[in-house]
Design a protein that fits this description.
It contains 5 helices and 8 strands, in the order ααααβββββαβββ. The protein is globular and about 40 Å long. The N terminus is likely disordered.
Amino acid sequence: MILSDGVPRSTIESRDRKRIQDGYPTHEEVRALLHRAALALYRNERELIDHNVHEQALGFRIGLFLANTIERPDSKLHVDSEYNRQGTKPKVILSQGRIGKRPDLVIHVRDTNESNLLAVEIKKSAEAIEDDLERLCALQSDPFHYHDAVLLILGATPQWRWIRTDPELTEIPCEQRL
């Protein structure tokens, strides 16, 4: 079976099995981690949202939460912001020409494309997101193979769109009203 991005399902499933065998989080676990990080931002750092700070400041807080959760001495996984390398070479994203911008946050093993778990683009509104969506789609293809890619909108209420599974932006579920 072929998914909408043209990648055979069996290829994705085999990558999933390899990541699980290597001790890396599954799609559901990564989704839950990002969910908790977004909720923590809205609960504990609400003034950043209310004061309309730059998306890089919001991304830092999300990345800090993820890094504190994921990075361990016994794991090769890292959370990096604005990561611009593919091994030792600059990361270049090609799609209908050169997009060239690096993702806002990534969860990956440095120096390899074998364990790219998540690429995140962060915006404060759902306006002008076409380039971000195109970049995320490109990051899930050759040569990067990010398992998951998500557009995270950090506006009045958090929203996201997981590129392979969500057809449109959806509000991030909350246990209680933010």
